[in-house]
């Protein structure tokens, strides 16, 4: 079995997830290099994956100054820093496992696709949901013809109140100008899934929504700009209280762990250290007084070639959870990702079917319902030319589906229905 | 207690339903006349409700040629026959209980609203869902502030495959030559509900959708144009086979009962007689050869004053059911109309609550989840000016919500986002 060597740029949560899963398949992958500005993260990688010291870099630019020394480059840097390392790595001949969203502009996304196609390398975007047993099952139900042709898909990405406050108000994705618009930052997954399940190109898109609630005018009476001051009259009841989320972890949410892994500069990082970091960072801001501009609710309507339609709702105002309802000419499918439940109703016999998803250890304990493991597993077969599945998508498909998101933003800002043909032509895609 | 008298114009399914509900409250309501062009339907009214020959009219024009003979006129004729009797009845001074959709065109809807305003009569449109314990409960949860301010609503009207075939392919609402567009014929209820729950003005709307599946090009190989008696090779697996639905009632639906009510020319109409009718009836047609043109799937996107959004999905490709999800600044609500309870998540305590719907006895057996009886009950209080609830909406509100649906059709046909203000202005409609 041919082993594929991997370098990893960006040793954060996503880079770590792929490294972990690749490392669990030692006959298929070998991690031979890492680049990350954070010394703690680099050290962790070096130790966990036995990376030689000379292959550990503090900057992706340095690792890519070397001649190509691996088969694959994993690009898991921040969103605004995907484009340059991706273009350089492609130029060097690396296959890429590229985190989503691809890049913050249409042009950069298309550039990457063109470069990859010209160079003849594979660029697989981390649309990990395609690789979960759950969504693979849904896709195979559709492909089997059990529900006929897809006529409509309703998708809900319930971001979740706390998740929204952590990532899209206080955190790394609080500004659409520094990252990508919400519809891509969060739901490029969903746009991609919808298109994959419908199986046809998107023809037109409309979108409404905005940042409406998490703004200064809705701040409770007397709420200070910095929640970390501890003087807010709502301190004990507000679910977004930074004390409640990052120290007490009142609602058993993963944000505290994520915060620690971003902030910790030494292994004995304590609650007192957390308090200090809350006081000096955006995570300590009041959610109504933060520097955020991401829409807290947005709807996207789509129509596809052949007439199928789809709706997508993404918003902060829920407990979290992804729901998919698919309406087909022979049956209907309803799926709730959080409990892996899939229900199908077929019209010919008027029967309900509960479809079980083949759970694996990775899908139960692994990240993204097994998607992180799944993509790494499938990628190996794909690069070896032995891939028989239908999850893997090449960069052109991913870019096409990103463009739906960009088009949705244009539709939202201009109050128009955007034709995808015209939109794609505008950007030379 | 004041007894209100009523006449019924259109003694079909809906007319009969309201009649039955009203007559369950004899201290509140008394029927004094009926008009229907089908003699068997008039006979049914005589048999069932004890009306005399003199109280039965064979046409709405006849009953409305008489001086005003009751407080209320129920108008439950077919959609294209709402406008004229409504205008005449308003002129005579009747209060109206008017079936939905109000009328198949924007102009007629606005004229009815304007006429009612001028005449000072009350016109309540049968948006029965507003009166069901289910939606009353949802509305009261929102009003209580439990989920804060509404930021987004997802509404799904899953028509149901066989219901769609019965009403919107073969039936009276199968073609826009005899029916309003789908978004109004079926989901004016849902647009009204969304706006009611949102309690804000709708600012703009977009819509996609079409008739895609139930067309000739998708007919199974060898399927004859007429299903009944046609010996179709696809019969065995086809859920729409005419004989399965209208004779054998294989799936235990209400369509055979409705079909019989529509076509029976006398009491005790037999299956053999039904078979005879099916030989030439629209209900005997193949669903792919039915000459239908209503959308079989449609989505609608809405934005409201203040920034909240809503989506409506309506299509044939499902088992049926109405689903409502409301996302608010303090929590989230999920409800399915056939369930006994509503699920609410509150973010302050990160908890899920199962809220039971206070069932009235009628809602278990009553139509539209108890909305039919709820409407009739609230209507009485409203006319007697003792109404303390929040369901009743006068014609202004209903027509405004209808205009949202018409605007959605314009958006769908022109691939644009339509401003509701501009659309209303075009119709010269001023909402309160």
CATH architecture of the largest domain in chain B: 2-Layer Sandwich
Count of distinct structural domains of chain A: 3
SS-derived structural category of chain B: alpha/beta
The CATH class of the largest domain in chain A is Alpha Beta
Number of continuous helical runs of chain B? 16
Can you put this structure into words, describing what you see?
The complex is a heterodimer of chains A (429) and B (432). Chain A has three domains: 4-125, NAD(P)-binding Rossmann-like Domain (Rossmann fold, 3-Layer(aba) Sandwich), CATH 3.40.50; 149-214 and 292-328 and 394-426, Dihydrodipicolinate Reductase, domain 2 (2-Layer Sandwich), CATH 3.30.360; 217-284, no CATH class. The model of chain A has no long low-confidence stretch (mean pLDDT 95). Chain A has a nine-stranded mixed beta sheet with strand order 14-13-12-11-7-10-9-8-15. A six-stranded parallel beta sheet of chain A has the order 3-2-1-4-5-6, with helices on both faces. Chain A is 37% helix and 20% strand. With 429 residues, chain A is an alpha/beta fold. Chain A is globular and about 60 Å long. Chain B is of the alpha/beta class. Chain B folds into three domains: 4-125, Rossmann fold; 130-214 and 293-363 and 395-426, Dihydrodipicolinate Reductase, domain 2; 221-284, no CATH class. Chain B has 16 helices and 15 strands. Chain B has helices at 13-23, 39-49, 60-63, 83-92, 106-119, 133-143, 161-170, 182-185, 188-198, 242-246, 255-263, 271-278, 361-365, 371-383, 395-414, 420-426, and strands at 4-9, 29-35, 56-57, 72-75, 95-98, 123-125, 150-158, 202-210, 297-304, 309-315, 321-328, 331-336, 341-346, 351-356, 418-419. In chain B, the strands form two sheets. Chain B has a nine-stranded mixed beta sheet. In chain B, strands 3-2-1-4-5-6 form a six-stranded parallel beta sheet, with helices on both faces. In chain B, strand 11 and strand 12 (331-336) form a beta hairpin. In chain B, helix 1 packs across helix 14, helix 4 (83-92) runs parallel beside helix 5 and helix 5 (106-119) packs antiparallel against helix 15. Chain B is globular. The model of chain B has no long low-confidence stretch (mean pLDDT 95). At the A-B interface, strand 7, strand 8, strand 9, strand 10 and strand 11 of A face strand 7, strand 8, strand 9, strand 10 and strand 11 of B.
């Amino acid at each position: 079995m041919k082993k594929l060597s991997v370098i990893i740029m960006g040793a954060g949560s996503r880079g770590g997830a792929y490294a972990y899963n690749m490392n669990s398949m030692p006959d298929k992958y070998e991690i031979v290099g890492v680049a990350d500005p954070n010394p703690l993260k680099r050290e962790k990688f070096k130790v966990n994956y036995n990376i030689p010291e000379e292959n550990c870099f503090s900057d992706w630019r340095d690792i890519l100054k070397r001649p190509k020394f691996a088969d694959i480059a994993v690009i898991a840097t921040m969103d605004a820093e995907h484009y340059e390392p991706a273009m350089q790595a492609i130029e060097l001949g690396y296959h890429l496992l590229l985190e989503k969203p691809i890049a913050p502009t249409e042009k950069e996304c298309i550039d990457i696709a063109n470069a990859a196609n010209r160079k003849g390398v594979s660029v697989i975007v981390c649309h990990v949901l395609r690789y979960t047993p759950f969504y693979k099952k849904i896709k195979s139900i559709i492909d089997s013809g059990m529900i006929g042709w897809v006529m409509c898909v309703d998708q809900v990405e319930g971001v979740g109140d706390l998740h929204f406050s952590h990532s899209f108000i206080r955190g790394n994705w609080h500004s659409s100008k520094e990252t990508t618009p919400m519809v891509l930052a969060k739901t490029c997954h969903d746009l991609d899934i919808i298109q994959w399940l419908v199986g046809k190109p998107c023809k037109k898109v409309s979108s409404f929504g905005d940042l409406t609630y998490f703004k200064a005018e809705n701040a409770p009476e007397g709420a200070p700009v910095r929640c970390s001051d501890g003087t807010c009259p709502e301190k004990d009841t507000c679910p977004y209280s930074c004390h409640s989320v990052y120290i007490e972890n009142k609602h058993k949410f993963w944000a505290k762990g994520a915060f620690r892994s971003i902030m910790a500069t030494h292994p004995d990082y304590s609650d007192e250290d957390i308090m200090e970091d809350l006081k000096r960072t955006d995570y300590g801001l009041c959610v109504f007084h933060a520097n955020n501009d991401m829409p807290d609710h947005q709807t996207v309507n789509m129509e596809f070639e052949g007439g199928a339609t789809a709706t997508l709702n993404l918003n902060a105002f829920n407990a979290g959870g992804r729901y998919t309802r698919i309406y087909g000419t022979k049956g209907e499918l309803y799926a709730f990702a959080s409990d892996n439940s899939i229900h199908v109703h077929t019209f010919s016999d008027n029967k309900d079917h509960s479809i079980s998803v083949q759970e694996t250890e990775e899908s139960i304990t692994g990240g993204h319902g097994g998607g992180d493991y799944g993509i790494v597993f499938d990628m190996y077969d794909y690069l070896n030319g032995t891939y028989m599945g239908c999850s893997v998508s090449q960069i052109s498909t991913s870019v096409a589906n990103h463009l739906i998101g960009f088009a949705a933003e244009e539709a939202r800002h201009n109050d128009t229905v955007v034709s995808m043909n015209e939109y794609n032509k505008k950007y030379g895609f | 207690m004041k007894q209100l008298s009523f006449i019924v114009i259109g003694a079909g399914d809906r007319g009969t339903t309201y009649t039955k509900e009203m007559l369950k409250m004899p201290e509140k309501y008394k029927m004094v006349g009926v008009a229907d062009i089908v003699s068997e339907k008039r006979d049914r009214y005589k048999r069932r409700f004890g009306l005399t020959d003199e109280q039965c009219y064979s046409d709405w024009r006849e009953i409305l040629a008489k001086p005003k003979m009751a407080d209320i006129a129920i108008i439950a004729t077919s959609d294209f026959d709402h406008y004229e009797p409504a205008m005449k009845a308003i002129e005579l001074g009747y209060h109206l209980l008017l079936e939905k959709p109000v009328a198949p065109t924007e102009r007629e809807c606005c004229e009815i609203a304007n006429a009612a305003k001028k005449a000072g009569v009350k016109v309540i449109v049968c948006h029965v869902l507003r009166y069901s314990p289910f939606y009353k409960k949802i509305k009261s949860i929102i009003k209580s502030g439990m989920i804060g301010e509404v930021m987004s609503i997802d509404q799904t009207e899953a028509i149901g495959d066989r219901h769609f075939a019965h009403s919107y392919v073969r039936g009276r609402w199968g073609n826009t030559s005899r029916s309003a567009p789908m978004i109004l014929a079926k989901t004016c209820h849902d647009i009204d509900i969304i706006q009611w729950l949102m309690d804000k003005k709708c600012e703009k709307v977009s819509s996609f959708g079409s008739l895609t599946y139930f067309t000739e090009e998708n007919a199974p190989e060898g399927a004859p144009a007429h299903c009944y008696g046609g010996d179709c090779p696809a019969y065995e697996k086809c859920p729409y086979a005419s004989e399965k639905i209208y004779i054998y009632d294989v799936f235990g639906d209400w369509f055979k009962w409705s079909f019989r009510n529509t076509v029976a020319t006398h009491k005790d109409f037999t299956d053999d007689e039904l078979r005879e009718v099916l030989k030439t009836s629209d209900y005997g047609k193949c669903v792919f050869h039915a000459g239908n043109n209503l959308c079989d799937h449609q989505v609608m996107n809405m934005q409201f004053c203040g920034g909240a959004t809503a989506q409506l999905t309506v299509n044939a490709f499902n088992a049926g059911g109405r689903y409502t999800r409301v996302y608010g600044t303090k929590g989230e609500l999920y409800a399915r109309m056939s369930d006994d309870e509503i699920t609410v998540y509150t973010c302050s305590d990160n908890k899920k609550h199962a809220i039971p719907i206070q069932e009235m006895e009628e809602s278990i057996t009553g139509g539209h989840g108890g909305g039919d009886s709820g409407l009739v009950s609230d209507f009485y209080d409203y006319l007697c000016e003792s109404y303390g609830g929040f369901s009743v909406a006068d014609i202004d509100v209903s027509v405004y919500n209808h205009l949202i649906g018409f605007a959605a059709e314009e958006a769908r046909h022109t691939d644009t986002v339509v401003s509701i203000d501009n659309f209303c202005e075009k119709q010269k409609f001023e909402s309160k």
